[in-house]
Design goal:
The protein is an all-alpha fold. The chain has one domain. Helix content is 68%, strand content 0%. The longest helix has 36 residues. The chain is globular and about 60 Å long.
Length: 394
């Protein structure tokens, strides 16, 4: 493993590869939901043959989104620790994060109300009380059982992301106090805190579903992404090492899926599965990220223009695909088998996501960059890296 800084010409392909990984994550999640929302009874517990288990495990695309967020957003803090530079501007970070996720999210939530409010209790549609809609505007839907997984169900993950965004500057400042050691210690503590939380929750029965849909349950995924950012900084891997990491990462992801599927087949709620959750898959994704971002040449599959384009649109894809699936099913025009639903929903979702990117996301990001840059000057070394990060779910 060489320790020289990556050559400048390789930077753009590596950035494109990250978009390629976003595309993989987004398409996996769409595949999972196309399976889920075409079931006669919309429940992830309804699994029959092998194909059901395969479609169900595409849910791991969500884990990849969380790992990506940890990797990308921790990068500026890693850079500051490595170079001895000043801490990234928390003000600039907050403005860019808000511009990246809020406008498109608010538009999608408002559209979900318009599309679905008339179809309560149709398959897959669960609506909150109208008086609680304000919780969605402030990412508060995860903190009430009667709003959790309602309206636009995947939005619960964005509430987790938003909580992580609030926690990250504190973690970053903790890391910088210890410089090179601190930058490793912060994500390790974050990861271990999540494992401890899941251990504590695993031994208690009758808990609200809220406890499994808040940040502490998912800190291990963000933590391994943050550790990958530490390992990747300033390094270029020999091709054979990169391919070995890539292969090991894929093996871990597949192994995690098989572990979860086996437990479901046996009807087991294995305590180890409740404690470690999908940490093996998260670790696998972190290894893939490490391989891709330290390679001399990123894998061509991830940097192909159509794949990169899907990655660019991934946030809009994530925001819109479930409300569109539910609306089409309520209208009786959604094929009630997975591949048929995908054939219908993917083109429509891409079209809506492209409009979201063009008319909402790009203008909002441009505005947030302008505002964040006022008076920041060279004080914020993390601008470029942070701008690469989509909302972890998108």
């Amino acid at each position: 493993m060489a320790h020289a800084a990556p050559p400048a010409p390789a930077a753009a392909p590596r950035q494109h590869a990250l978009d390629g990984l976003r595309a993989v994550a987004a398409l996996s999640v769409v595949g999972y939901h196309a399976w889920l929302y075409t079931l006669p009874t919309v429940s992830s517990a309804e699994r029959g043959g092998t194909s059901d288990y395969v479609w169900h495990e595409l849910r791991l695309g969500l884990v990849l989104f969380f790992v990506l967020s940890g990797f990308l957003l921790y990068g500026p803090w890693v850079r500051s620790a490595a170079t001895g530079g000043r801490a990234p501007s928390v003000r600039g970070y907050a403005i860019r994060r808000a511009g990246r996720i809020l406008p498109a999210y608010w538009v999608a939530i408002a559209a979900s109300v318009l599309l679905l409010w008339w179809y309560d209790r149709t398959p897959g549609v669960r609506l909150p009380d109208g008086g609680n809609l304000w919780l969605f505007a402030v990412f508060g839907q995860n903190f009430r059982a009667d709003t959790l997984l309602t309206l636009n169900p995947p939005s619960w993950t964005l509430a987790v992301e938003a909580t992580f965004y609030l926690a990250l500057p504190l973690l970053g400042l903790l890391a910088l106090r210890g410089r090179r050691a601190g930058v490793v210690l912060a994500p390790v503590l974050f990861l271990l805190a999540g494992v401890a939380y899941n251990y504590a929750m695993s031994s208690r029965g009758g808990l609200s579903p809220i406890v499994s849909k808040v940040l502490p349950a998912y800190t291990p995924y963000f933590g391994v992404g943050m550790l990958a950012a530490v390992l990747a900084y300033g390094r270029t891997l020999a091709p054979r090492v990169g391919w070995a990491l890539l292969g090991a990462g894929v093996v871990l992801v597949v192994g995690d899926a098989l572990w979860a599927a086996d437990a479901a087949t046996r009807g087991s709620h294995d305590q180890a599965l409740r404690i470690w959750r999908d940490l093996p898959a998260a670790t696998g994704f972190a290894l893939v990220l490490l391989a891709v971002t330290t390679a001399v040449r990123a894998p061509r599959l991830l940097t192909a223009r159509p794949v990169v384009r899907v990655g660019e649109l991934s946030y809009g894809i994530y925001l819109w695909h479930v409300p569109l699936l539910l609306f089409l099913r309520a209208q009786g025009v959604l094929p009630l088998f997975t591949t048929g639903a995908l054939a219908v929903i993917l083109p429509l979702t891409f079209l809506v996501a492209a409009a979201s990117w063009r008319f909402v996301e790009q203008p909002a990001q441009a505005w947030s960059r302008r505002v964040a840059s006022r008076g920041a000057g060279a004080r914020d070394p993390g601008t470029a890296e942070a701008a690469l990060a989509g909302a972890g779910a998108g």
